[in-house]
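Model: Ready when you are.
Researcher: Fold this.
Model:
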Amino acid sequence: MRIKTYRMGKERQTIDNFNGIIVASHKGWADFFIQSAMAFPSCICRLAVALVMPLGALSAYLGGNLLFFRRSSPSKNQNIEELNQKMQKTGERYKNCVDSINPRLLIFPEGHRKAERVIQRIRTGTFRIAYQQKIPVMILPCEGSQNIVREKKMFIHSADVNIDPEALPNNIIEGVGCNDNKRLRGVCVLNCKEIVDPTKFKNWEDFYAECDKLFREGYDEVCGMYDQITKDTTAAILE
């Protein structure tokens, strides 16, 4: 597909040298492909993905590029010890992936994708595990993937987005994707905001609060940059 990606924030080398969990905003199906092309991580995803794309999911799983989880809520009879054991087991899987399979593990901490320009509640599980296992977290929100494919209508953006490279801001870097600047199907911008070290916090609550703050700040920044890059284009117009 003719998609152009841009990166702001920290240098590309920061992503390439990073070992830990990447947390990104989740706007649509395109996120998996865009984030994977930018950071080459393994991805955490629901078992439902395997039902939608069985062959692709199986291939990625066998190659170590997918870790499945089953979304569930604690039962009324489940005590805190059982929850801690479950979290410990999940944390060990994440740690093993980062240490032995792929140094970068991609997680969408909102839990659900949402096409609107908003950050949903950031769920705490990822950050509890990262704190428990002492795994660094990279804050990498993005904007624009929801304007490439409108999932409810299965509508793919027509190839009529034209970007003027001379008008790009100085602090934006071209990432992966189409080398052309005309007749694009969409534009996506990623913000390599910050890396948060869990060992610098006294408890997981403070660690989570810092990550949550940076995630929201980073998303506001990347939205502003997306609007600046796509001004006077059809990038955000799907019909």
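Researcher: Now this one.
Model:
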Amino acid sequence: MRMIFPATHTPIYLVVRGDSKKSDAFIEANQDAALPDVKGGYTVCFFELNPSSEPVIAAPVAKSTPEDLRKLEDIEEMKFSGKKVFVWFMVPTKALDAVQKMKNYMHKIVNHVRDAFQTAGDQGEFWFAEQNPIPKDAVTARRPKMPWLFDENGNYTTLDTPDPFFLDDRDRRSKLVEASIIERHHMVNMYDVLFRPGKEHEATLELAAVSQWKIHIWMNSPDQKPAPPEGNRAKYKIQGLGEGDGLCIASSLADFAILTSAPFTSDWNGKTCKIELALKLNLKSILGQILEEKQKWEETLNIIQEVRGFMADVVKFHRQSVVDDSRTQSRGKEWLKSLGRKARRSAEP
């Protein structure tokens, strides 16, 4: 079980015997109750916490014993806000120098976090990320390194956060949003490489409707890549057939397909070919794109009409596909025959 006190809401002090007469007197008065069995050659220390909010309790309930669950219930009923919390421990006396260094470093980082937190207001545990947005032209989706994680030799300390829980709802939103930003940035870079100029992919042409073609595409990649999002517009170039553009859709045959209006002749139906693609992913919402570009009203209407046209084309394509599907025609005939049989039987005396 872990009890987590976020530093943004909790001043933390590390007290070591010998710091002051006052702290030594406090240790003498409370040591027996807190640490009844102090080993020889060890020195008593404690953390003093002054939380202004309740801590986060992270416990593997599924593996807890009845005794553990009882203790957990007792802890959850406690009111920590406004009360001091003492965490006692002992260290080898020979290691006191290391403890003093840890104390100085801890005070420095806690004070830094609290000062920034009080200046910026109640913005949660990820205030540094919010104050340092990722530049639009960044090569990788990484924010500036946090200055307090550099040691005295200039080496940067990478934090490992494998904990399978969130501190609070702000922590949850911050981590998930940050993860989605990095994921989107990675996807954009991945497709820029995958669909770079001059790189060819395998494709098969399928006549979907009158002047409507589906180009089934197998991506030229040594490992499996996710298909581009449906609705994304892509430009293509097929040797001997020319250039065009269309909308990315799902494919039951290949990695994905492009729905396009093209003047291909019917003898190309079912043939394979090499295709080059130019695809620029835009993973932002439609409303976000309109607001970000600050389009004029006429331009905004044009965007909306284009989206409506795309949806109409998709609906038309799916309807036509269903009508032309031989399985649908066969089942439709069987259904009509069954209705006729039932009608005749009901009319019989």
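Researcher: Key takeaway?
Model: The longest helix spans residues 297-324.
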